[in-house]
């Protein structure tokens, strides 16, 4: 909402800062540019320090940049604030789909991602509507809208702080030998043979006693949930930056990038 909303104030920016239309529209183009660049940064940060830390940091940064946008007296300051605000907003685009994958089953992810896409797309549409009303009805025009977005960002920061626990989880993997798998299979086959046809058939899963108990599941305390950082010693920060670049050699990844760019570019142009 904060990124696209200011598009309706381009004529006012041209008059207030004595800039051409090309210069004034940079508050949009540079914002979207850094919105794309930020994804390269926030994903490795989320892998190393946790998704909770990434969202808290990015939302706090957004609130600060929106306040700077509303208060800056110069056009260069406005451009700088817009660039950093776009960079901070990138966390919402890249990390939220990972949170969906962490917290939902495979058959639920399509519905959850649909809701996410509708909401994030709706913000780009609702933002200019609200900004248009505030620009024409308030004394501070586009600055009032920036203050509103700053307040929304602070509200989101509070919600994330108290309602979003860390979703990163390293699930242990058990390496069972062929003999162990055969033993488990024969055990389950024998148990099924002993059951009568009138009994309900339970799902064919190993019993807890047959699986190595290398970890226990416990409910975290409030203090553990409220911790802002979940440091992962198993993640190489530099490698986490490089790994996504390797995916560019895959045609399916390039096709996804191209499809997203073709779909998004008309919306950017219309703004």
UniProtKB/TrEMBL annotation:
GO molecular function annotation: transmembrane transporter activity
Membrane topology (UniProt): Multi-pass membrane protein
Bias kind Basic and acidic residues: ranges: 189-204
TM stretches of this protein: 27-46, 53-71, 113-133, 145-164
Family annotation (PROSITE patterns): MFS
Domain Major facilitator superfamily (MFS) profile stretches: 1-271
Sequence segments annotated as region (Disordered): 188-208
SUPFAM superfamilies: MFS general substrate transporter (SSF103473)
Keywords: Membrane, Transmembrane, Transmembrane helix
Xref: Pfam families: MFS_1
Subcellular location(s) of the protein: Membrane
GO cellular component, one term: plasma membrane
InterPro entries with a match to the protein in the record: MFS, MFS_dom, MFS_trans_sf
Listed PANTHER family: MAJOR FACILITATOR SUPERFAMILY, MAJOR FACILITATOR SUPERFAMILY (MFS) PROFILE DOMAIN-CONTAINING PROTEIN
Name of the protein this chain belongs to: Major facilitator superfamily (MFS) profile domain-containing protein
């Amino acid at each position: 909402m904060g990124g696209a909303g200011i598009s309706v104030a381009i004529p006012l920016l041209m008059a207030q800062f004595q800039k051409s239309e090309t210069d004034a529209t940079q508050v949009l183009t540079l914002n979207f540019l850094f919105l794309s660049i930020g994804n390269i940064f926030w994903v490795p940060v989320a892998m190393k320090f946790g998704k909770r830390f990434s969202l808290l940091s990015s939302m706090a940064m957004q609130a600060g940049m929106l306040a700077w946008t509303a208060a800056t007296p110069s056009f260069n300051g406005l451009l700088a604030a817009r660039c950093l605000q776009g960079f901070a907003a990138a966390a919402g685009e890249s990390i939220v789909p990972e949170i969906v994958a962490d917290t939902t089953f495979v058959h639920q992810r399509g519905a959850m991602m649909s809701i996410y896409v509708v909401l994030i797309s709706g913000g780009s549409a609702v933002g200019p509507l609200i900004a248009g009303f505030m620009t024409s009805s308030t004394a501070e025009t586009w600055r009032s809208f920036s203050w509103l977005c700053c307040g929304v960002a602070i509200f989101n920061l509070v919600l994330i702080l108290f309602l979003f626990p860390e979703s990163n989880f390293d699930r242990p993997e058990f390496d069972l030998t062929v003999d162990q798998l055969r033993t488990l299979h024969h055990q389950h086959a024998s148990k099924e043979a002993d059951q009568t046809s009138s009994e309900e058939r339970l799902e064919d899963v190993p019993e807890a006693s047959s699986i190595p108990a290398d970890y226990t599941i416990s409910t975290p305390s409030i203090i553990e949930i409220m911790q802002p950082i979940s440091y992962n010693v198993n993640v190489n920060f530099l490698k986490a930056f490089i790994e996504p670049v390797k995916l560019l050699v895959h045609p399916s990844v390039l096709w996804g990038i191209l499809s997203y760019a073709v779909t998004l570019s008309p919306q950017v142009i219309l703004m």
